[in-house]
């Protein structure tokens, strides 16, 4: 890292965590550390960073996205945890389970937790498909999977969380739709905020559907989505929510996923010979959860089908691209 922006005064500096030459301030909290890491060339090109610099110098607020901050905060939180909890004799309670151990290289997870947290999946880059580590051949195209054809589960979860937030924020499918668009625009600010929160759950469920296309293992889907939801939970904590409140918000995501899974199951039972009609059932439930429209009509349901289809298509393309990028990075590092 060779360029970063001081989050306090906007001056350029050489490292995210070094003192600023202009204001002499240094990030001390996890949130400030995450913001500093975000405003570095690890995440943005120089021209983007200099735009942030101008924003800060003008006295305006940088529009930080808290999901992105939660991803940036992870290594910062681990460093803070290590510094605060390591004993004089070099012992540390595991950051995940609390078991005391002797860390190596400022490691904050015990060996038992580390194997799950640092879990890897094998990928077939011809398809691409995601498999549990140890799978030898792609079940879709038959290609041999090398032990080096791996991607960290954490990286996929981060990509899913980031992509859901970015696609959701940039989406215009609802506002431009023929039936849901007018309904959405006419909502009061409070009801629109509620609808948009529910739409993000729909976007997240689209990630579940995406992963189901990229792996035949429900265990793999659950592991990746659980990691992405943990990033969302951390983002709520960074916004000031208590651990209980942040946990309850994540539970509402899981509850909604279960409801959409139920719609999928109803479609399979009522339309056993249809491979695609299930999306009408899911979309109908999504219209009700987002807008309270209980009476199903073809117009609003079709608009939601388009919304879900858009997210699945974009997430599939992005996830496939990032799987190839992560694999290429890991292979280069191995060489």
Task: Based on the model shown, name its key terms.
335 residues; three-stranded antiparallel sheet; two-stranded antiparallel ribbon; globular
Secondary-structure blueprint:
Layout: E1 4-5, E2 12-13, H1 30-38, H2 46-57, H3 66-85, E3 92-93, E4 100-101, H4 111-117, E5 120-124, E6 129-132, E7 150-152, H5 153-170, H6 173-176, H7 180-185, H8 189-214, H9 218-238, H10 243-270, H11 278-291, H12 298-334
Low-confidence stretches: none
Class inferred from helices and paired strands: mainly alpha
The number of distinct structural domains comes to: 3
Shape: globular
- Count the DSSP helices: 12
Query: Strand order, biggest sheet?
Result: 6-5-7
Share in β-strands = 5-15%
Mean pLDDT: 89
List how many beta strands DSSP finds. 7
Helix content: 55-70%
Describe this structure in words.
- The protein is mainly alpha-helical and 335 residues long.
- It folds into three domains: 4-64, no CATH class; 75-116, no CATH class; 160-334, no CATH class.
- 60% of the residues lie in helices and 6% in strands.
- The protein is built from twelve helices and seven strands.
- It has helices at 30-38, 46-57, 66-85, 111-117, 153-170, 173-176, 180-185, 189-214, 218-238, 243-270, 278-291, 298-334, and strands at residues 4-5, 12-13, 92-93, 100-101, 120-124, 129-132, 150-152.
- The chain has a three-stranded antiparallel β-sheet.
- Strand 5 and strand 6 form a beta hairpin.
- Helix 5 crosses helix 8 (189-214).
- The model has no long low-confidence stretch (mean pLDDT 89).
